[in-house]
User: Fold Uracil-DNA glycosylase from Candida orthopsilosis.
Amino acid sequence: MTAKRSLITDYFSQVGGTVKKCKPAHTSKVDEKPKVIPETKPRETKPPTKNPSLEFTSFNKQEWINSLTSEQKELLQLEIDTLHISWLSMLYKELTKPYFLNLKKFLQSQQKQGKTIFPKPQHIYSWSNLTPLPNVKCLILGQDPYHNHNQAHGLAFSVLEPTRPPPSLINIYKTLTIDYPDTFRVPDYQELLKQGKPGGGNLTKWATNGGVLMLNAVLTVEAHKANSHANQGWEQFTEQVIRVALEYHQKHKSGFVIMAWGTPAQKRLKPFEKMLTKNSTSGNGNDQFLVLKTVHPSPLSAHRGFFNSQVFKKCNDWLEKHNRDVIDWSVY
Assistant:
């Protein structure tokens, strides 16, 4: 029996779009004169995401699932259920490589030992669902998730409510007030607390409305143990995520900005130096990527140049120059 193919409507349905079914055309009787229907201009509809690509339809998700062994299906169920189709269609071959399957076995063993892992499974790939591949306008590279409760939710530097913004995020906010002194306001945790809405560190709006892909090099961590899941395979996988994003936007001549804060983030770009050098900003107006390197916003290093780096303003200036919508960096 032929497997059901994944259609572009599957892609739209995952990002909030709807597709109307057409009624079958009415067939008139032979002895009736056909009615003359005046021509009308087709109604234009706006897709739910920017620049959606029909190439995603070439990936038959169900056919791929059917090709997996029982063990692979068990290990990859989270990716099958939660990795956005635009990313899955480009990364599915990576998921069955030995290193990734071993990574999933490692995570499985951690759970069996009763260890708490952050973020929660349903949030690990939230970066892919909140920022589908065609929507990427800015890539912010992080290291590994926050390791305390009510923090990590799949977006680098972002924390869930009611958590107070961590020090690195506060420094990111301080830089935004320097770049946009008239418009950006740091969320006031005490004021939000009085309103019964404590928090101020959730950057989901950047991902959904701004096209900001906030990607950690390592996507999971054991509770209260920073970097505990480093060197288990996530770095190799997220390197492929970066490669997919670069190659896709290079192909479609859309380009984006990359913010690499600190040495670990800048090391993530080493495999792509040739591509980024060839397509980096040089003032000729034809370049496809802008790489903004600076120190990490951590309190240990931010004073060495992060506050005056103007990374957010430079990002928007570049997007505007390349005829892309600028990013609204407000949190609410």
Observations:
- The domain at 118-322 is CATH 3.40.470.10 (Uracil-DNA Glycosylase, subunit E).
- Confidence is low (pLDDT under 50) at residues 1-52, 282-286.
- The beta strands are 117-118, 138-142, 212-216, 221-222, 256-261, 289-294.
